[in-house]
Amino acid sequence: MKHYSYEEWQQYVKDEMGNSLREELEGHLYTCDQCLDIYLLAVTANQTSLPTLPNETQFTNRVMEMVPVTNSNVSKVKITSTVPDTRLFHYLLAAAATLLLMFSGVFQTLASYTSAFEKPMIQEKKPKPSVTEGVINRTFAWMDSIEKKEAIKK
Fold first, then answer.
1. CA distance 20 to 24
2. Which of 34, 33, 43, 32 is nearest to 9 (CA)?
3. Which of 29, 47, 52, 61 is 20 to 30 A from 8, alpha carbon to alpha carbon?
4. Largest separation between any pair of C-alpha atoms in the chain
């Protein structure tokens, strides 16, 4: 993987490179943490050279004043909803259904079913012996078979 230098990231931050190289650098940032750190250093170093807003508190108001309004009645229209607010009804319905299911024992039954499914999965997950442990076990089995053969000969 090719890594880019600090100077190249400086050029990227200052927008002093062509579009093809810029796209290449942007794609590289997604895959390389090392270059991302260098890029962040370059951004931090150039932070003081970036333009600042003279009056930050009024910036939004000035931008909104520049937006043209095609219909002068837009600001005078009051939006009213004809759909009744049913959030309270849905909340009460959900609470009632929860209480009904709790007192009827449905949740307890579901819990017992899930625990029945979990137990076999837990039992199946026995750790496999390591390679060294396998070699040792085979060696002892081999040694035991030799001892049995010698005992038979005597």
1. 6
2. 43
3. 52
4. 114
